[in-house]
Amino acid sequence: EVLYQSLCQHGVETVLDDRGLRPGGMFADMELIGIPHRVVVSERGLAAGTLEYRARGEGESRALSQDELFALLS
Fold it and tell me: pTM of the predicted model, to two decimals?
């Protein structure tokens, strides 16, 4: 939620999906409504200090720091 608030404060239109669904279901819904960027916060990523980022239409996701994410989306 902190990342969500930070993105909103920086003018990035953001959707927080906290419905408790399995990731595959949430990812499919994001594709259906055309969300251009996906950021996943996971336990493993938090431990490594990274976020999982994937642009719509890209095949693979990549690990980014929070600073790299803000630079990319700004």
Answer: 0.85
Average confidence score pLDDT of the chain: 94
Cβ neighbours, 10 Å, residue 62 = 13
Number of domains into which the chain is organized: 1
Which CA distances in Å does 42 have to 32, 34, 39, 46, 47? 23, 22, 10, 6, 9
14: domain range?
Answer: 2-73
Distance between CA atoms of 1 and 23, rounded to whole angstroms?
17
Which residues are registered as beta bridge partners of 37?
Answer: 55
Q: Which residues contact 26 (CB under 8 A, 6 or more apart)?
A: 17, 19
